[in-house]
Design a protein that fits this description.
Radius of gyration: 37 Å
Helix content: 25-40%
Strand order of the largest sheet: 1-2-3-4-8-7
Number of strands: 21
Shape: globular
Distance between the termini: 73 Å
Length: 586
């Protein structure tokens, strides 16, 4: 639905005159993209939609206006164009054939992501989600409009680089915000100069969160990665985690401090990129090393968390200059400190030895306590043992020597839980299995599910974002497809084409042939059920598909008319006999 308004659809400022806007130069004659909403579309009886600001595989972002608060906003629409489409002039989205389960899965992830961001609205350095609602067969998230510019534009308008002192002032709140989002189980995957904004108050804000499928390759929707800032695992579908965002923020610092964008991850080799301090000598060595560790191509060798990355950035460099001679007073103080430190160490060592001795005595007492409790029947054996002291002594020494030489068994080491478990619920099982073959062990359970197409994971026993160790066993439930499906249309389809349709829906079927001249040979004539009727695939309901074969040719003699004879075939018969009748009639 469109709403009449005097607002400019380019900047949402009031415009009471004809022609292009004097503030943003937007004209109402500007053509809009047919796939997206038309300017002046009214949503949720509250929001006016303006022009498209940006779009990616997940959907589009529009400039908008909140009529309830009288403020400018950004409106994000879930509209993955590989799964759905919109006809020109319409608001409703149509999901492509066979894509409904996947569309619903990604739609649910879009809503969950923005609900999590909405709960974090108290974070001043995160673009705030103000509202979430569903309409037009999709979902919308309303974001605050940031009065500012992307970091890329800010660098272009200034000297092109920032000093380390400027970085120390600007970026710590962003580090904190990222760390908090990671704790909430959210990975950004798109940190770049385009998704960090500089506000009119010279503060940074993090924007541009998207569902995981929009930021990794080989998924069912178009991938958006930022060259130079995207981690290598985003190109290969290896495990993504907090270290993926460490790569992104390290790349941003590299660009800000050196003026050079890092080489794209898939084009890099181990030593193909210069350290920041080799480009800009004013960069502290510890900062340069931390950035390079954050940009390590190997996820195992890369800094794993934002907290660790910040620690490395701000660690104090060791003093390597010439030491200044100490005064006599400083020397006395230093000697006193050394003596006190030596006393403290001695006390700790003695305390440790006492504890060890106590533990040995306690263990010995426990061991002998069991031996002292003997049954009355063992008293006779004590007499025998007393008469053989030498043998007992020899046996004891033998046992002692055996126990000394026998190696003690070490407890098995427990692997560190350092991998953030991905969300598998929106992915094809075969793809996830091959991608994480060397990382996790999958225990698979196949079930019919009306909300997911066959082969899609819809449940996992461990929550996404949980820290697990390599080799962890993950139980996943995989859809066998809907339990009841509608019989698809067959008009004009060949037996091969229709069989492919039935196989895709897991419908069990058998083929029979029917003589007819109404349908071309090899095409489907009819089925044992009507198009659109429910078919229970869970109960292995079988459908009979009748395929057209030619009618027998009519054999005639001049002056006479011979009625054609119908041949009734068994279901097993599939070869026509009419072609042999004509020569005999002649």
């Amino acid at each position: 639905m469109l709403k009449e308004t005097t607002l400019c659809m380019g900047c949402m400022c009031d415009k009471t005159y004809d022609g292009a806007c004097k503030l943003c130069s937007y004209s109402e004659d500007t053509p809009s993209i047919p796939s997206y909403l038309r300017p002046k579309t009214f949503l949720n009886e509250r929001y006016i939609v303006g022009k498209v600001l940006s779009y990616n595989g997940e959907g589009a972002v529009y400039v908008g206006y909140d009529t309830a608060t009288g403020t400018k906003v950004n409106i994000k629409e879930f509209m993955p164009d590989t799964l759905c489409s919109r006809k020109r002039g319409e608001d409703e989205i149509s999901v492509n054939t066979g894509m409904l389960p996947l569309y619903k899965t990604y739609l649910s992830e879009f809503e969950d992501l923005n609900k999590t961001l909405m709960k974090s609205r108290g974070m001043a350095h995160l673009q705030t989600v103000l509202d979430i609602f569903t309409e037009n067969n999709t979902a919308y998230a309303v974001y605050e409009h940031i009065n500012g510019i992307p970091l890329s534009a800010y660098l272009s308008n200034s000297s092109g680089v920032l000093t380390w002192e400027q970085i120390k002032e600007l970026f710590p709140p962003v580090f904190t915000t990222l760390s908090l989002m990671h704790a909430a189980g959210v990975i950004h995957r798109g940190i770049s100069l385009s998704t960090i904004y500089v506000t009119d108050k010279l503060e940074l804000k993090l924007t541009g969160f998207s569902i995981s499928a929009a930021r990794t390759t080989n998924t069912e929707i178009a991938c958006e990665v930022y060259a130079g800032f995207a981690a290598p695992e985003q190109y290969t579908n290896d495990v993504n985690g907090t270290w993926t965002d460490v790569y992104g923020i390290a790349a941003v610092l590299y660009r800000c401090l050196t003026g050079c964008t890092p080489t794209e991850a898939i084009a890099r080799t181990g030593s193909s990129m210069l350290e920041p301090m080799m480009i800009n000598r004013n960069i502290p060595s510890n900062v340069s090393r931390a950035i390079m560790r954050g940009l390590n191509l190997s996820t195992d060798n890369r800094i794993r968390t934002i907290t660790e990355f910040v620690d490395k950035l701000f660690e104090q460099p060791k003093y390597v200059g010439i030491e200044k001679p100490l005064s006599k007073q400083q020397e006395k103080k230093l000697k006193k400190q050394k003596k006190e430190r030596a006393k403290t160490i001695a006390v700790l060592v003695i305390a440790g030895l006492v504890l060890i001795a106590f533990a040995i005595v306690f263990a010995w007492a426990l061991d002998n306590g069991g031996k002292d409790k003997q049954n009355p029947s063992d008293l006779s054996s004590q007499t025998v043992e007393a008469s053989q002291p030498e043998a007992t002594s020899a046996s004891t020494s033998s046992t002692a020597s055996t126990s000394e030489t026998q190696p003690t068994e070490e407890a098995p080491s427990v692997p560190d839980a350092n991998i953030s478990l991905p969300n598998f619920s929106n992915r094809r099982f075969e793809s996830a299995k091959s991608q994480y073959l060397n990382t996790f062990t999958f225990k698979e359970e196949w079930e019919y599910n009306d909300a997911y197409i066959s082969g899609i994971i819809f449940w996992q026993d461990i929550e996404p974002g949980t820290m697990v160790s390599q080799g962890a066993v993950i139980t996943v439930k995989i859809s066998k497809g809907p339990s009841i499906v509608e019989l698809p249309e067959y008009s004009g389809l060949s037996v091969t084409e229709y069989a492919a349709e039935l196989n895709a829906l897991n419908i069990k079927y058998k083929i029979e042939y029917e003589k007819t001249n109404e349908v071309p040979v090899g095409k489907v004539v009819r089925c044992s059920k009507s198009v659109g009727d429910p078919v229970s695939v869970e109960n292995s309901e079988e459908i009979t598909v009748f395929i057209a074969e030619p009618m027998p040719e009519e054999s005639t003699v001049p002056g006479t008319v011979e009625a054609p004879t119908e041949t009734v075939e068994s279901p097993e018969s599939s070869q026509p006999e009419s072609t042999e009748a004509a020569p005999e009639a002649e």
